[in-house]
Amino acid sequence: MLLVVSMCLTVYARSLTFCRLRRSKEDLPETTVASFESAARDLAALCEQYGWEVVLHYNNRQQEAEALCATLTDKGYRVTPISADLSLADAPDALMATASHSGPVTAVINNASLFSYDCADSVSPELIAQHMAVNLSAPALLTKALYQQLPEERTGCVINMLDAKLFGINPDYFSYTLSKAAAHALTQISAQAYAPRLRVNAIAPGIVLPSGGQSQAEFEKSHKRNLLGQGATIAEIVAAMRLLLSASSMTGEVVILDGGAHLRPPARDVAFLEA
């Protein structure tokens, strides 16, 4: 079974990362895509559970990608890094072609993301286009490519990584927020368009790493404002991935992991809140 995971090296990525996981059973050639810089242990646990072989995609974070590959390789898993820039129009198809070379891909986790600051007064056509290319067009095209290479007798799964701020909106990171709102719509539209052969769901985490120029102390204090007094962890996000990959009746849904922050939304991004 092959698993392809579209993965960010940071939750709010300034770079693009992507990874493919391949299950080693010869009778079940499938694939899925996933992400996260510090998720080596969790990713290894997924490999252990499902027996996946991993192909890791990255853009300009070669050192981190190779370190993750080395960690998993040392644990006995087969991991191959792939470099690609998902802001380029032909990159999603090329990436899927490479990922499916040794067998069909059956799952994609779209987590590669661009996260650059602007506001309503500074928004520009260029920055909107840059965010839309990475955060909307790339997952849309990867989902289409997944569907097109999927054998007729197989079913697949897509997980789009969104942002919990969509459910407690504020205008900071204007273009980024627009692109993630569009990705939310993409999740629902794709769930309708590709059914019953593809299930398409999403995870919307709150901040898992410091946002903007936050210090570690500010990052920890921002979680205290949440209803539960805590935020999500990478391990919890991986647990949600497991649920969505295995829940065969779930499609078009969003799992919000933010400690209840969206039920008590701030007026601004947490990076700008006073300590």
Per CATH, the architecture is: 3-Layer(aba) Sandwich
Question: What would you give as the CATH superfamily?
Answer: NAD(P)-binding Rossmann-like Domain
Q: Helices and strands, in N-to-C order?
A: EEEHEHEHEHEHEHHE
Total E-strand runs = 9
CATH fold name: Rossmann fold
CATH top level? Alpha Beta
Number of domains: 1
Structural category: alpha/beta
Helical stretch tally: 7
- Percent of residues in helices: 25-40%
Q: Compute the separation of the termini in Å.
A: 47 Å
Strand-residue fraction? Answer: 15-25%
Written account of the structure:
This protein has 275 residues and is of the alpha/beta class. The chain has one domain (2-209, 231-259): Rossmann fold, CATH 3.40.50. It is built from seven helices and nine strands. It has helices at residues 40-50, 62-74, 91-99, 125-149, 174-193, 216-224, 234-246; strands at residues 2-6, 17-23, 31-33, 52-58, 79-83, 107-110, 156-161, 198-205, 254-257. α3 (91-99) packs parallel to α4 and α4 (125-149) packs parallel to α5 (174-193). It is globular and about 50 Å long.
Brief account:
This protein is α/β, with parallel strands linked by helices. It is built from seven helices and nine strands. The protein has a single domain, classed as Rossmann fold (3-Layer(aba) Sandwich).
